[in-house]
């Protein structure tokens, strides 16, 4: 996807002996440069004061631990629209809300929140990890351009 500014969290740089065999020394060197020069630094706003905070707890896995940029997320978004990860039929299943055993429509599908907002279907997910890190990713399927 050419997401060249997305990297594992800065904790992989603290333990190069652990991560170099998995990610490669050349990648760790590249990650170090990206974290230092391209990534936004975490902060919290208290009133009018910006307070820089540290990166979140050290963790790298499926649920958290990646750092990205707006441009790389745009590349990710385009790949979803092109069905580069999942076939269209599979993606539609992931974007279909589950139904409980009692027949109640639940607010999420497979890994995505799915809801109707005034007649418009919204697909979204969010992340929040510690102080200074949060994001919301929102899709409006009816607004996705045809391939």
Secondary-structure map with pairings?
Elements (H helix, E strand, L loop, with lengths): L6 E2 L2 H4 L1 H8 L1 H13 L5 E4 L2 E4 L13 E2 L2 H12 L6 H7 L18 E5 L2 E9 L5 E6 L8
Antiparallel strand pairs: 1-4, 2-3, 5-6, 6-7
Helix pairs in contact: 2-3
Outline the structure in words:
It is a single chain. This protein has 147 residues and is α+β, with helices and mostly antiparallel strands. Helix content is 30%, strand content 22%. It is built from five helices and seven strands. It has helices at 11-14, 16-23, 25-37, 70-81, 88-94; strands at residues 7-8, 43-46, 49-52, 66-67, 113-117, 120-128, 134-139. The longest helix is centred in the N-terminal third of the chain and has 13 residues, at 25-37. The model has no long low-confidence stretch (mean pLDDT 84).
């Amino acid at each position: 996807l050419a997401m060249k500014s997305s990297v594992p969290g800065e904790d992989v740089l603290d333990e190069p002996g652990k991560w170099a065999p998995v990610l490669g020394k050349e990648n760790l060197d590249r990650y170090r440069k990206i974290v230092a020069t391209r990534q936004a630094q975490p902060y919290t706003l208290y009133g009018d004061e910006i307070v820089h905070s540290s990166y979140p707890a050290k963790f790298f896995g499926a649920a958290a631990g990646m750092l990205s940029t707006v441009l790389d997320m745009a590349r990710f978004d385009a790949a979803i629209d092109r069905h580069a990860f999942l076939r269209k039929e599979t993606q539609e299943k992931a974007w279909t809300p589950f139904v409980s055993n009692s027949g109640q429509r639940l607010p999420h599908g497979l890994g995505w929140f799915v809801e109707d907002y005034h007649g418009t279907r919204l697909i979204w997910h969010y992340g929040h990890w510690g102080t200074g890190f949060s994001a919301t990713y929102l899709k409006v399927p009816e607004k996705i351009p045809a391939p």
